[in-house]
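Hi D.,

Good news: the full-assembly prediction came through. Inputs first.
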Amino acid sequence: MAKQSLLVGCGAGFSGDRVDAPGPVVRTLAARGGPACLMLETLAERTLALAQLRRLESLEAGYEPLLARLLAPVLGTCLDRGIRIVTNAGAANPAGAARRVQELARELGLRPPRVAVVAGDDLSGAEHAGLLAAAFGGERRPVSANAYLGAEAIAKAWDAGADLIVTGRVADPSLAVGPAMAQHGWSETDWDRLGRATMAGHLLECGAQVTGGYFADPGFKDVPELAKVGFPVARIDAEGDCVIGKADATGGCVTEATVKEQLLYEVHDPAAYLTPDVTADITQACVTETGPDLVALDGVRGHERPCTLKVTAFFEGGWFAEGEISYAGPGAEARARLAADILASRLPHLRLRADLIGVTSLFGDDAGRLLAATPVGDARDVRLRVAAAHADLEAARRLGEEVTALYTCGPAGGGGVRTSIRPRLTTASCFLPREAVHARFEWAD
Amino acid sequence: MPRTVCLRELAHGRTGDKGNRSNISVIARRRAHWDALVAQVTEEAVARALAHRRPSRVTRYLLPRLAAMNFVIDDVLDGGVNDALNLDAHGKALAFLVLDLPIDLPDHP
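Then the structure:
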């Protein structure tokens, strides 16, 4: 008899996602019955370095700040109904996140959950210092260095009966691949099935980005009830193929178009989507609507996984300063352009980027080539925005001072000054042999 | 009469980023337009649209079963999310720069 499919619902697609998203996902998983998993992905490239900085300030910090708010509405149902939770919300402190979950269960009067912690991604200790110095150059010590782990430790924790699996850095799709691997009993070299489950995980990992979020373009791509967009739920069968849908009684939509956009999101060579688990190949993939808000993904293949693991490190990168001021009415664009010229002349020590929001901004380049090529027009509501980075805090602060001074020393009618300054992190990646990284799971105390 | 339309009428797409590399998908709304897109939404056309960003390389991958193409554009994000001074350091808006390309349609598509 064919094994039961696994349902994987995604309740968060980035750090800062909606805390009311997991509720409808868990209600849907409970209503469908059968083996099920709630996936919470909260760890973008940058998020981990910021978490590492918080951990330096406090030993109990460094995990996803929204963790308790994401889990509180659903933890009871998940524990009652055997819906297991897999999340990378551990960030720089998975053990701390695990303790917070146990404390939350006590606060809510729930049974103590069995919490597994996946460790081994953090390479900031002495053991790896030599390898990292060789890869990045010895003169800079990274703020954080983490390897992207795969699905295996998650699968082992699932097999061992964990109610909740908390990780730090793992490849996002592996959060779904681990449970599927364990549930269906796949080996770590079952490349085709791992490849298919990886693309299922890839469709899920950004939450609403597959259900109508990051998609709507009025008149061209309309999405029903986007304000109530539902998060995705995928059924992954024993072959790794998936049908993707969304939480019941929510807005948004799952169509061939939404699935194709997310399938290619952050993909480079479609024949070789590299993860720690597999080299997935979507060149022969196809998507088919099989019902309302239901799309099947077929034709994905898998090849042998890379023999190295990707490591991303963050380094202190000085200071990032920004300032903005607005001009409106006749001559607004000319006044904003004059203000930009004044700032360039007052701040010769900074490599200043200037944007005229309302004329040209996002498409522009740091060197200002697009702005320079944009003919002077007569835009009537323009916000000048300038930005610069500098190693020295005082030098960076000068930007905010000069933007503020435009109130009285700049062109006529400038209003709405905002300035900010924050520490900057820069990043570098390298690849290490798998043997140098020891992925494992441990039970939380 | 042949006519010129904006790519956005014929296709949709999305930007992703990894480091200093951007990828932009262009997905045909109707299979009938696929050949016109393959002929006109080329690596050169995308490189021209992004010329001010000085891409070092543009690679197009075709996925005919999805009626989709994927552009991988190197060194186009001023260093990427942690280094760029752009408000949109991820370059998330860039798909709409590509979707603004003009496309010539023949008499009887």
